[in-house]
Amino acid sequence: MQQMADEQRCGYVDCDNTSSDLKCCAECQKVRYCSKKCQKTDWEKHIFVCKAAKPISTVYYLARDLGRDNCKVPLHHQTCVDYGFDKALRIFGSEGVNRLCMVYQKLIRHLRVPLKTLRTWQKEGRLVEGIKSVLEAKEEKGDLYDWFLKHQYLFDGSSIDRATTVRQTMTSVTAMLLKVWPYAGGSPHDTFATLLSKSAKFSKNQHNCFFFVAVIQNPGVPDPDIELRLTFGFVAEQALNVNLGLKYAELFTHCTFDEFCQAYGRSSIPALFARYGIVEVGHHPLFRDVMSGSPSTFKSVWRLKFYIEDVGHSRPGEHTPPAPSVVADYGYGNCKNAEETKLLDTLYAQLFGKHAVDPLALHVACFKGELLDFAKKYVKLSPWTAKYARLLKNSYSV
User: Fold this and answer.
1) Predicted model pTM
2) Is the pLDDT reported for residue 231 higher than 80?
3) What distance in Å separates the CA atoms of residue 111 and residue 170, rounded to the nearest whole number?
């Protein structure tokens, strides 16, 4: 009986093996595996927990979003640059991005190309050559292969001129909005000029809802620097453990545009999800909390999470600044230079990422003036303990 009590399950989620002699990850000393094979297979996910405070190769972001278990357009900025998504979006809009996703899904999910191989191709400027060789060797010469051959320049790392970017962005946005215009009550035969004229009568909430529906249905999720990620609850997606963009798309097949706008204005989108049977979203306490004051009022911890997610997906220095409430509550007002701001960014990124702390628990600690004690439970603060002690003081501290 004692032996069974000491047994633990392998840390790889798809493995059911249990043992009292699991081997610990040498990096984090927290997750245990039954074999090197399981540890190696799980690494593309575990790396985001194990090395949350260290630079992570963009190929792992690619695999995280398009690997075995997911089908999400990558948002991490450098990943989009390295693997052609930034260029595809600028030139072809969502259609080009979707095609690119299909190429990488085939490589990673179906053909099992090792991530290290993909990373080497990208680093050495040989993505086109490498992808072509794999698809030809596997005799994968269907429509996707033909598309790849016609659009090899998306994979070669070259830049595009600004005029092309502006022109293609306008074309993409126009198509995106026209696609969902009938859902908002317009005619499928309306021109873009008519759409602009009629939508000019929309309220601010209606404009936000219309643009959000367009983003979701094209398909995708709001970029990390767009406030719609906050107002529509994507800051709680990690805890939901679902693809929130797909759940919104499902909701739009049930509710009308007017229903959605009314729920948005009344801070009752969770209730709308629940009404149409999508209870894993509608009843989740964190989603309900972040949406309880949307679109106007949010706990500062949700604004902090929005800021930290934007920092993680942006080029250095190109992210949105923290909201005033975040500056006041979470120590950013104590920072004397960029180095100290980076210390706080790293700390909160570890808390939300590697340790997946409950944002509401962090919120409680903040309003008790106990941010330092809270952080110590999860993160090793040395050799900056004294500096963190100063930075993490707020108006609630004793």
Assistant:
1) 0.70
2) yes
3) 36
